[in-house]
């Protein structure tokens, strides 16, 4: 019985190793930084990026019918060129509103964050997208 257990365990072990050795996919062309460039947080010597162009997130028909309201939190990185990248949901609302919030924020344009007031740098930020029925 012990021998069967050991054989069964050994047959399972190679699978994770094979998965771990698979090549990584090519890097995302919209990646915010070079591989060795840090991503900053706002504060201290790092100023916050400023929105230059904003797009309003649209309600989905499903959310309107359900009278759904609330705040969806979207995390992203504003790269050194002022573009939103790595846009993702931090706090979900559901009913398609998360996707609408992401769609809108991907169209935002920013003045990039500045380090020491001189050098544009990528920063992590969170944006609240407020869905309210009028």
Write up what this structure looks like.
This protein has 134 residues and is an alpha+beta fold. The protein has helices at 2-12, 14-20, 61-65, 97-105; strands at 40-41, 50-53, 70-78, 84-91, 109-111, 113-115, 119-121, 123-131. It has one domain (27-131): TonB (TolA/TonB C-terminal domain, 2-Layer Sandwich). A 4-stranded mixed β-sheet has the order 1-8-3-4, covered by helices on one side. The protein has a two-stranded antiparallel ribbon with strand order 2-5. Strands 6-7 form a two-stranded antiparallel sheet.
What's this entry about, in short?
With 134 residues, the chain is α+β, with helices and mostly antiparallel strands.
CATH fold category name: TolA/TonB C-terminal domain
Helix content: 10-25%
Q: Give the end-to-end Cα distance, rounded to a whole number of Å.
A: 69 Å
User: Got a strand count?
Assistant: 8
List the helices and strands and how they pair.
Elements (H helix, E strand, L loop, with lengths): L1 H11 L1 H7 L19 E2 L8 E4 L7 H5 L4 E9 L5 E8 L5 H9 L3 E3 L1 E3 L3 E3 L1 E9 L3
Parallel strand pairs: 1-8
Antiparallel strand pairs: 2-5, 3-4, 3-8, 6-7
């Amino acid at each position: 019985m012990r021998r069967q257990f050991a054989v069964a365990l050994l047959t399972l072990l190679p699978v994770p190793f094979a998965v771990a050795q698979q090549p990584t996919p090519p890097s995302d062309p919209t990646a915010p930084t070079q591989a060795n460039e840090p991503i900053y947080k706002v504060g201290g010597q790092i100023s916050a990026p400023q929105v230059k162009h904003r797009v309003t997130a649209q309600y989905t028909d499903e959310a309107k019918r359900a009278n759904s309201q609330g705040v969806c939190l979207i995390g992203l990185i504003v790269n050194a060129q002022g573009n939103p990248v790595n846009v993702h949901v931090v706090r979900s609302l559901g009913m398609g509103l998360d996707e609408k919030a992401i769609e809108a924020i991907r169209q935002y344009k920013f003045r990039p964050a500045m380090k020491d007031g001189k050098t544009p740098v990528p920063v992590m930020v969170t944006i609240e997208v407020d869905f309210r029925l009028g």
